[in-house]
Prior knowledge:
Strand content: under 5%
Structural class: mainly alpha
Shape: flat
Distance between the termini: 58 Å
Order of helices and strands: HHHHHHHHHHH
Helix content: over 70%
Number of strands: 0
Transmembrane segments: 6-25, 103-124, 136-157, 290-310
Number of helices: 11
Radius of gyration: 27 Å
Region (Disordered): 37-64
Protein name: Type II secretion system protein
Keywords: Membrane, Transmembrane, Transmembrane helix
Amino acid sequence: MTGAALTGALVGFGLLLLAHALLPARPALATRLARLDAPTRPAGPTAGPTAGPTAAPTADLTPGRPRLADRWGPRLLDLLDRHGPRLPRLRADLAVCDRDPGAFLATSLLVGLVLLLTAPAAWIGLRLTGVPLPATVPLVAALALAATGALAPALALRAQARTRRREFRRVVGVFADLVAMNLAGGRGLPEALLASTSISEHWAMQRLRRALTEARLHATSPWQALAALGEDVAVDELRDLAGTLTLAAEDGATIRASLAARAATLRRKEMSDTEGEAGERAQSMLVAQLLLCTAFLVFLAYPALASLLAQT
Length: 312
C-alpha cells in the first residue's frame, strides 16, 4: 500500500507540474524585451555542399497545425525564464547547434514523461498476467527511466556541441586569415570582415555572416557582434578575435600581423589537438590488441591447466 501510494503521489505531482507548465502564462516584460532585441533566426538551414551538420526539419504529421514541441516549447521556455535556473552551458550548446531551446525542453520533458509512465504500465501488465512484483519496483524504475529520458537528449546535445565547436574554431582560424588577406588588398576593416564570410557556405561562416549583417542593420560595431556570438556559442577563440579587432579599432593597433599570428596559433593548436587524438586512438588500439592476445593465450593454456588440476 505504501509503494502504491507513493507511486500515485509521484504521478499526480508530475501531472500537476505538466499542467502548470502547459497553461498559457503571461511572460515578464524583461523576457518580451529580450526577445524583441534578439536577432531573428532564419527560416531554415541554408543548403549547400559544405553546409555542415544541421538538424533536419521533421515532417509535420498534421498539416496546418504546429508540432507538439513547437506548441509547448515557448510556454516551457517562459516557465524556465521566470522560475528556473539560467543553465548557461545548455543554452550555449543549443546556440552552437542552432536549435530552439523551447523545442528541446519540450522534447526532453515528453521523453521523460513517457518513460515515467512506462514502468507503472509494465508493472500493471505483469500483475495482470500473474507475475507478482513489489510495489516499490515500479517507483524506482519510473524514477530511473524518467531521469534517463530527461538527461539523454542533453548528453546527445553535449556531444554534438563539442563537434560543432571544434569546427567553429577551425573556421575562426580560416576567417582570421581571410580578413588579413582582405586588409592586405586595401579593404577597410568592416568591409574585410563581411567579405571574408562570403567565401564559403559552411554553417559557421553563415553564422559569422549573419552576425555581421545584423550588426550593420542595427548600427553596431562588427567586433561587438562577433564578441556576442562568441559568448552565445561559448567559443573562446572568437571572443579573443573580437578583442583583437576592438583593440585595433579603438587604439589604432596594427591588425594585419596580429590576425596572421592568431590564425597561425589556431592552426598549431588544431594540429596539436589532432595529434593528441590520434595518439589516444593508437593507445586504445594497442590496449585492445593486448587484451585480445591475452584472451587467446588464456584460451590456449586453459585445457592444459584444467587437465593438470584434474590430475592433482
